[in-house]
Amino acid sequence: MPKVRKRKLFGRTDGFIQDAVKRKLYEGYSIKKLYSLDTLLQELDEDFKEDNGFPYRRTQLSRLLKKLGFKFKKIDKKVSKFDFPENKHWRFKYLNNLAKYRQENRLIIYLDETWFDSHEVYDFGWTDSSKNCVLKIVRTRGKRLLILHAGSANGWVKDSLLIGSKNFKKSSADYHEDMSGESFESWFKTKLLPNLSPNAVIVMDNASVHSRLIQKILRKGTRKADIINFMENNNIPIPTPIPTIPKLLELISTFNIRRTYIVDELAKDHGFTVERLPPYHCIFNPIEMIWGIIKQELRKINVNPLNEDGVVERVRDIIENKITPEIWRKSILHVQKLEQEYISESLYTIIPIVITPEDLVDSDTDDEAELQ
Fold it and tell me: pLDDT value at position 234?
């Protein structure tokens, strides 16, 4: 008998039906409304009443949602901050700036830091749930490593890796204290900037160590003498007699005093541009995917977490030998696709997408990369 080909489920489902389902869910999020499978089917039936109701029943709708990439799980409340009006405005400006830099063929450098705890191990394995399959390890985090690096479509920036380990005094780490604004600025000036090609753009988030101001922000608790000094440095007329601190602060607020960050000015002095990610938008930084891959590899080989010797060396080896320029290019391409979706967000609100790195390196697991 001739072999009968089995038609794929939803193989002929038209784009109108798929778009109707996605739009219904996205519109729900925009008005703070969450759907169960039953309530979603009920409203879709109402929307399609002129066509004798929605063409799929409950089980088929569930399978269609999974095909479209939806999962039923606890909603992260940070998503609401993601779409604050000021963050959406920042996002619009950021995406337009990135598009302009690419048109100008400027190299875009992405930097970030992450942490790895020396007792982190791989969480997945074959088990029959018996006592013979219990992983006997300590339940503490161990000692923490800081990893700071930067990269682009060309791969890692040469000689810019910094590994910090406050508690690994005898290790081969580069830095043995907590990361501070001063130490980040030192790395930025001596390790990063000298190794960049001319006219590069540096993308970073707004972490406190990245954001030390040249002039401190004035607050109600600021001494009057410091406020007067600030006004003199910014050519703001000082009334006579000198009023109270609240009146001085009110006067200063009428002048457009721009916040100026130390690292932004360092970059500008060397011919580079700093572009800051909008708050809660780490999905636009491809290095987040890179960190996930590195941590996966570290957990796989961290089979004896009590023996902390060599952890720093293993981190260096994975960064230098596992993370290739090709992985960087794929990560950046993934982020560029996300950027295009958000540029088109006027059609409907797009919910942040969880980035996973399975398609970037060969792996024998379905474990998802961790985003920090």
Answer: 74
Candidates 120, 106, 132, 200; CA nearest to 160 is 200
Six token digits for residue 372: 């920090």
Q: How many CB atoms lie within 10 A of CB 320?
A: 11
CA distance 17 to 60: 13
- The string of DSSP codes covering 16-54 is HHHHHHHHHHHHHHHTT----HHHHHHHHHHHTGGGTS-
58 with 198, same domain: the answer is no
| pTM as predicted | 0.68
CA dist 10 and 62 (Å) reads 12
Residue 357 lies in a domain: no
Distance CA 299, CA 273 (A): 36
Q: Does one domain contain both 156 and 180? A: yes
Q: Which of 148, 121, 142 is nearest to 299 (CA)?
A: 121
Domain presence at residue 371: no
Residue 203 is predicted with a pLDDT of 97
**What is the per-residue pLDDT across 16-36, written as a single tens digit (0 to 9) for each?**
788 888 888 888 877 778 888
The residues near 17 (Cβ < 8 Å, ≥ 6 apart) are 55
Is the domain of 198 the same as that of 304? yes
Of 22-36, 73-87, 286-300, 323-337, least confident by mean pLDDT is: 73-87
Q: Which amino acid is at 273?
A: T
Same domain, 203 and 222: no
Neighbours of 206 (CB within 10 A): 12
Which of 137-146, 148-157, 258-267 bottoms out in mean pLDDT, i.e. has the lowest? 137-146
Q: How many domains does the chain have?
A: 3
Kindly report the backbone phi and psi dihedral angles of residue 183, in degrees, each rounded to the nearest multiple of 5, phi listed first.
-70, -35
For residue 324, give the H/E element and its range: none
Do residues 163 and 145 lie in contact, with contact meaning Cβ atoms separated by under 8 Å?
yes
CA distance 239 to 80: 43
Euclidean distance between CA atoms 150 and 322, whole angstroms = 15
Q: Domain boundary residue among 225, 241, 259?
A: 259
195: domain range? 81-209+263-343
